[in-house]
Design brief:
The protein is mainly alpha-helical. The chain has helices at about 10-15, 25-35, 45-55, 65-70, 85-90, 100-115, 120-125; strands spanning about 5, 40, 75-80, 115-120. It has one domain (about 5-125): Rossmann fold. The two termini are about 15 Å apart.
Length: about 130
């Protein structure tokens, strides 16, 4: 059963730069891995990753589609789709939530699926209307 949704940065750090995770994040991800329990990501995270590669902010050693498919098919990662409910929630987060559409969709995905969001984004953490790790 899913309990945690990772934002894009946490997913990247977990898979390639674990030293950037907090001790709490590291412990939780290690425990989930040990149990074989998957974490969730929003489908928009794959789009954000593709954009990071396309603009040169992230280097990969395999073709982009193969890299994304590897993440999409990873046994410990469940990709949650954009749904009407997620999209509707993403535009109703309130004026005090920042305008980044990917962050809006990630937060709405966590909220709609009843998941705790693992994020390092201080704007989301300060907003405070989604369960956080």
């Amino acid at each position: 059963m899913l309990s945690v949704l990772l934002d894009t940065h946490i997913l990247l750090w977990w898979r390639s730069d674990a030293g950037r995770l907090t001790p709490t994040q590291t412990r939780m991800l290690q425990e989930l891995e040990r149990k074989g329990s998957p974490v969730a990501i929003s489908a928009i995270t794959l789009w954000e990753l593709a954009n990071l590669v396309a603009c040169g902010r992230r280097r990969i050693t395999v073709p982009l589609d193969a890299w994304l498919e590897e993440l999409e098919n990873h046994p410990l990662i469940a990709v949650l789709p954009l749904t009407a409910r997620v999209v509707a929630d993403s535009v109703q987060l309130g004026a005090d939530f920042h305008k980044d559409p990917a962050d809006r969709i990630i937060v709405a995905t966590a909220r709609c699926h009843g998941l705790r969001l693992m994020t390092a984004d201080q704007r989301i953490r300060r907003w405070g209307r989604v369960p956080l790790i």
